[in-house]
Amino acid sequence: MRSLSKKINNFTAKLLDLPQDVVTDLPRITMVGNVQLYIENHRGVIHFSNEQLKLGLTKGQLEVIGQNLTIRAILSEEVFIEGVIREIKYIP
């Protein structure tokens, strides 16, 4: 049943020319150099320090590792991070 739902979502996205992240609830990540990071479609902050950020996703987690990390803005599904970003990992 789950694969049928996924196929319908993909078909709908292609038919209506919608971005995959909108239909499938995937995170959208925008990075400016290694100093700014904007993440959409997250499910909450799991851990935050000046060297690590872990965000919950619909499926898995996103880990950001860096230096002097700060959360500049946070909304229910969006977060804006600044600092020296060294690594971004997806954890299933």
Automatic annotation (TrEMBL):
Superkingdom of the organism of origin: Bacteria
Q: Name the Gene3D superfamilies for this protein.
A: 2.60.40.2000
NCBIfam families per record: spore_yqfC
**Descriptive protein name:** Sporulation protein YqfC
Which taxonomic lineage is given here? Bacteria, Bacillati, Bacillota, Bacilli, Bacillales
